[in-house]
Write a structure and sequence with these properties.
Strand 13, helix 13 and strand 14 form a beta-alpha-beta unit. This protein is about 35% helix and about 20% strand. It starts with a strand and ends with a strand. Helix 7 packs parallel to helix 9. With about 450 residues, it is an alpha/beta fold. The model has no long low-confidence stretch (mean pLDDT about 95).
Amino acid sequence: MKVSLVSLGCARTLVDSEVALGGLKKEGYEIVSDVHQSDIAVVNTCGFIEEAKLESIETILRLCEMKKKGHLQAIVVLGCLAQRHGEELRKELGNEVDGIIGTDNYGDLARVLRPLKDKHQKVFEVKAKPHFLLDENTPRFLLTPDYLAYVKISEGCINACAYCVIPKMKGAHRSRTIDSVVNEIKKIAAERHLSEIDLIGQDTAAFGFDRSRVFELPDLLRRVAELDLVPWIRLLYAHPGHVSEELIEVMAATPSICKYLDFPIEHSHDHMLRRMNRGVDRAKMQWGINTFRKKIPNISIRTTVIVGFPGETEAEFKDLMDFLKDTRFERLGAFMFSEEEGSRAYGLPDQIPQVLKQERFNAVMAQQQDISQGLNDQFVGKTIHVLIDSKGLKEADVYYGRSEADAPEVDGQVIVHSKSPLKPGAFVHARVTDALEYDLVGEC
């Protein structure tokens, strides 16, 4: 039986999709990339905010139309949206879809789907509290290019941010062992010629705390670097409240760890941070930023911010704008607050009108465009190290890559002109000839 999978959302969901496909392949399913060629279409959904939920629903409905036309035998809804809204999905789409499965069954999806495969019976399995945690023996069907892999080091979330429902969808924070992560990287490196490994989790900086009451990320990074299997090791999703001086020292002293920090502040004003229940104050975040930049002068810091959280005053928003202007983050993403049912912020008084949230979002992004342009202008005339991702489709001598300062999918790119052919996964030196708002242009 042929199965295809549509993976929505972030890199963490992508790893979940790889685990789901790995188990299906082990049980004899044929994995195909084209949904039109499959018997069963699986949608691994995102349910983080309203926009993500709408994308998931639209994807499901599009597949339902294909099924009505006879192009599919079955549709399975998997993941975060199913975990969060399983009963509603069953009520609204129970006649159209054939499976609704939560976040605890990525590793045994083939078992859960057996009644559907063998007896054409519909399947519903959404456990109240997810406990799944992959290890080095969990089959994965990697969906990334051969030179890149994500490695999820933990599951669930240790934080209880007021705006967030991830703990309800993914469960309590649970970390893998250091040996498990190291062994998985060894296994992947034995099968692929890796250029980059990205370590991911809901909060990578909290790695190990659930198990030992100690933040073990520095030890993990040392062990991974000692393998000497990959030129770039990138760390994503590090909560500012869990960043330590030891982590900074390890990153500064280890050449293979990308000088890149994913450091989501969400806001700058202490009153807003308390309302958001972020578990960190401005002083701690400022210490982290200052210390990273002091110990690693060439570091690029990515952050995210939320505008329009309930009760955000004009003065507090101005504080955020001033903080971003002074700090000059190299990379930034902004979100408008989404009132999510089941979150602590749901139903809070002093909700911000949508039009005002949009105005504040636009202001943050416009300011960041100017900051990003100014930072990129400084690279013109310099030579930088670039990892090639792909070849341009139209121009014969154009390739697209990333610098150490750019994570896959979420950051900018380097447009490289080269008279000689370049392979994806190759590292080149490029002299920067032009700077755009988010991207650089260079010659190999």
